[in-house]
Amino acid sequence: MTDSPPRPATNENFLLINAFAPQTHSPLVAITKRITDCGCNLTETRVATLGRDVSVLALAQGPWDAIAKLESALARLEREEQIRLVHYRTGPKPAQTNLLPYVVEVIAADKPGILYQLAEFFLHHNISIEQARAFLPFCCFIFSMIIYPYVSSLLCLTIGTFYVKQLQIMLKSYEYMK
To answer: 147 and 126 in contact (C-beta within 8 Å)?
Structure first.
């Protein structure tokens, strides 16, 4: 007899949904209507316009049968309204009680690879990027993110200052390399 993974609790079933459509036909209403109609709850959502399209990222939660019903409704929605959809089952976000969020904003001259350099810097220092936004108005690069350093809250100020200094050094050296 094989051990199967434990079934999630009644309402601990999650479906991560990403929908894409032209800006004139934003998928937000269609996605949230299906989530509600199927008896699920919308626990998190993000909406962004990128280029000519709108992207909706949604996390639905509900009993397994409501999630299964939602999966079927999303397949119909994709066929009928020509919305591009990607969805799959996932789990709840793990609790992060020992983390303290920081907001980091970078405004710099636009250079190829700058976002990669920033992401690599935070990965190298074991800092989780929770949210990120990057765009190019005019000729400069603007990057904003919420990060979670894996340290106790008592050390965050000291370590945060250290990371800011290291990040400044990294950006300066990156400017000289180009």
So the answer is: no
Residue 154's CATH number: 3.30.70.260
Query: Which of 79, 80, 34 lies closest to 56 in space, CA to CA?
Result: 34
Which pair of tokens denotes residue 51? 């280029």
| Cross-sheet strand order for the sheet of 127-135 | 102-109, 140-149, 127-135
Q: How confident is the model at residue 44 (pLDDT cuts 50, 70, 90)?
A: very high
Q: How many CB atoms lie within 10 A of CB 14?
A: 20
Q: What phi-psi label fits residue 97: left (phi over 0), alpha (psi between -120 and 50 degrees) or beta? A: alpha
Cβ-based neighbours of 61, under 8 Å, separated by 6 or more: 11, 12, 13, 14, 15, 40, 41, 42, 43
CB neighbourhood size of 60 (10 A) = 28
Which domain covers residue 123, as residue numbers?
102-177
- Whether residues 40 and 106 fall in one domain: no
* Chain position carrying tokens 């109609």: 37
The per-residue pLDDT for range 95-127, each reduced to its tens digit, is 776 666 777 777 777 778 878 888 888 888 777
Please tell me the distance from the alpha carbon of residue 8 to that of residue 128, in angstroms, as a whole number: 26
